[in-house]
Amino acid sequence: MTKAFLRARRPEHKQQRRAAILDAARELAIRSGVREVSLGGVAEAAGMAKSNLARYFATREEIYLELAAQEWKDWERAVLDRLAGSPAPDTLIDTLTGTLAERPLFCELLSHTVTTLEHNVTIEAARRFKLVTLDVQFTLAKAVAQACPEFTGNEARELVAAAAALASLLYPAANPPPVIAELYDREPALAAAAGVPFEPAMKRMLTAIAAGLPTLR
C-alpha cells in the first residue's frame, strides 16, 4: 500500500525522493533481477503511487540508467583505489576484472544498457548517462596509462571500455536464467562445454586484448 503523497517542494526534498526511488529499485533488482522489475513495483517499494513516481523518472529504464551511472562511478573509485599503489602491469588485469566481479549489479546493468535501458529514456537522461560513462572511461584511462606506461592514452581507454563490454557479455552467460541453469544441473557435460566462469573468462580475454593493443599501432 502506498503512503499519502506529499509533493516535495524544496530541492533537497526532491533529491531525497529520487534517492529513495533509486534505493528501492536497487533492492528490487538485487532481489529478483533488473528484467523482472516493473515501474509499478518500484513505486510500491518506494511508498508512492506510480503517477507520483513519474514526477521524478519518466520510465523504469530511466531509473536503472541512473543506477547504472552510479555504478560506473562506484567502479571508478574502486579501480582508482587499487591503482593508487602503482601496481605492476601484470596486476592491472586483476584489478579491472576483480572490481567488476565484485559488482554483480553493475555487470547486470551493463548487460541491459544497450539492449534495453537506452531505448525508453529522454534525451536529457541519455545525455547525463553518456557524460558519466565517458568521464569514468577517461579518468580510468589516465590512471591505467600512468600505472602501465606501455599503453598510450587511447589504448588505456580502449582497455577500460573493453573490460566493461566483456562484463556485459560474460555476466549473463555466467549467470544463466533458471531454465538454462536447470539444464546445466541435469547435464553437467553440457555445463562444462557451454558454461562460462565469469572471472577466469574475463581475465583471459582482457589479457589477450591488453597484449594485442600495442601491436596495432
TrEMBL record:
Q: Which residues form the HTH tetR-type domain?
A: 15-75
**Pfam families, per the entry:** TetR_C_34, TetR_N
The entry's DNA-binding region: 38-57
Extract the GO molecular function terms from the UniProt entry: DNA-binding transcription factor activity; transcription cis-regulatory region binding
Q: Does the keyword DNA-binding apply?
A: yes
Query: At the top level of its lineage, which domain of life is listed?
Result: Bacteria
Say yes or no: keyword ATP-binding present: no
The alphabetized UniProt keywords are: DNA-binding
Q: Which residues form a coiled coil?
A: none
Question: Which protein are we looking at?
Answer: TetR family transcriptional regulator
Q: Which organism is it from?
A: Actinomadura physcomitrii
